[in-house]
């Protein structure tokens, strides 16, 4: 589903040059929930930005659904818009839009008609348990509620790939577990592939694979075949 080979990323130039990612390769199957771990500064966000097509590698190649990702910026933006959902640590909801409008927004970008996008967005808000807050703006919601809205927004277009950067870092233990469960439940039917950077060991237990980065190098690529959460699923 997602393959990347020999990915490297160097920021800056000359004396200020910093290689954040060094020759990273892996192959991720459809429907996997992959945790990306490693110490602060090890390159997790850098790798997610490359795989989310938000940034381009200095070297290496990415394939999505066995197609090499395009180099043309417009084609790249279109693919990102259609195929990839994002969840961030700070939720990144648009502050002037209601919860419902935030979830509708990715469908609007895809040209979905208003009545259909409203219905789909509402169904997702209900599915993540915040339907009653549909008309409220992000600043009127708790962190856990905002992250549920952000999950609904990431999944509303049923993207084959969801990229999440520390989605539980701002949440208490109970909310964090609920958020992970929701991602798993909502992704199961559509066989969504998740790639999640996290420092949270509770999340690793629920993932099908752990990728560990250290100083920009992939030091471990470990399938979690005996993972009870995945077996039960
Ligand atoms: N835009 C940038 N310009 C220059 N250097 C950068 C940039 N983004 C990241 N870096 C550097 O790349 C390295 C990897 O950073 P990255 O943000 O990928 O780490 P991380 O594993 O996500 O860390 P954390 O767990 O703290 O989020 C760090 O040394 C960082 O300073
Ligand atoms: Mg990071």
UniProtKB/TrEMBL annotation:
Alphabetical keyword list: ATP-binding, Nucleotide-binding, Transport
GO molecular function annotations of the record: ATP binding
UniProt keyword Plastid, yes or no: no
PROSITE patterns according to UniProt: ABC_TRANSPORTER_1 (PS00211), ABC_TRANSPORTER_2 (PS50893)
Domain of life of the organism encoding this protein: Bacteria
InterPro entries assigned: AAA+_ATPase, ABC_transporter-like_ATP-bd, ABC_transporter-like_CS, ABC_transpr_LolD-like, MacB-like_ATP-bd, P-loop_NTPase
SUPFAM superfamilies: P-loop containing nucleoside triphosphate hydrolases
UniProt-listed Gene3D superfamilies: P-loop containing nucleotide triphosphate hydrolases
One Pfam short name: ABC_tran
Residue ranges of every copy of the ABC transporter domain listed in the record: 2-232
PANTHER family in UniProt: IMPORT ATP-BINDING PROTEIN (PTHR24220), LIPOPROTEIN-RELEASING SYSTEM ATP-BINDING PROTEIN LOLD (PTHR24220:SF689)
Similarity comment text for this entry: Belongs to the ABC transporter superfamily.
Protein name as catalogued: ABC transporter ATP-binding protein
Organism: Rheinheimera tilapiae
Species lineage: Bacteria, Pseudomonadati, Pseudomonadota, Gammaproteobacteria, Chromatiales
């Amino acid at each position: 589903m997602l393959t990347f080979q020999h990915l490297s990323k160097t920021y800056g130039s000359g004396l200020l040059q910093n290689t954040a990612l060094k020759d990273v390769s892996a192959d991720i199957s459809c429907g996997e929930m992959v945790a990306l771990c490693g110490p602060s500064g090890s390159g997790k966000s850098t790798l997610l930005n490359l795989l989310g097509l938000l940034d381009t590698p200095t070297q290496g190649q990415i394939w999505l659904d066995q197609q090499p990702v395009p180099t043309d910026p417009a084609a790249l933006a279109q693919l990102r818009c259609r195929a990839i959902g994002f969840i961030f640590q700070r939720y990144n909801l648009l502050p002037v839009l209601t919860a419902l409008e935030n979830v509708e927004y990715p469908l609007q970008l895809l040209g979905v008609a208003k009545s259909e996008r409203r219905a789909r967005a509402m169904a997702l808000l209900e599915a993540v348990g915040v339907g009653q807050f549909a008309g409220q703006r992000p600043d009127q919601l708790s962190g856990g509620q905002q992250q549920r809205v952000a999950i609904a927004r990431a999944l509303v277009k049923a993207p084959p790939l969801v990229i999440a950067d520390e989605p539980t870092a701002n949440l208490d233990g109970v909310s964090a577990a609920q958020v992970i469960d929701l991602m798993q439940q909502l992704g199961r039917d559509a066989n969504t592939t998740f790639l999640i950077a996290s420092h949270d060991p509770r999340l690793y237990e629920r993932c099908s694979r752990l990728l560990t980065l250290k100083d920009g190098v992939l030091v471990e690529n470990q399938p979690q075949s005996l993972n009870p959460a995945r077996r039960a699923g």
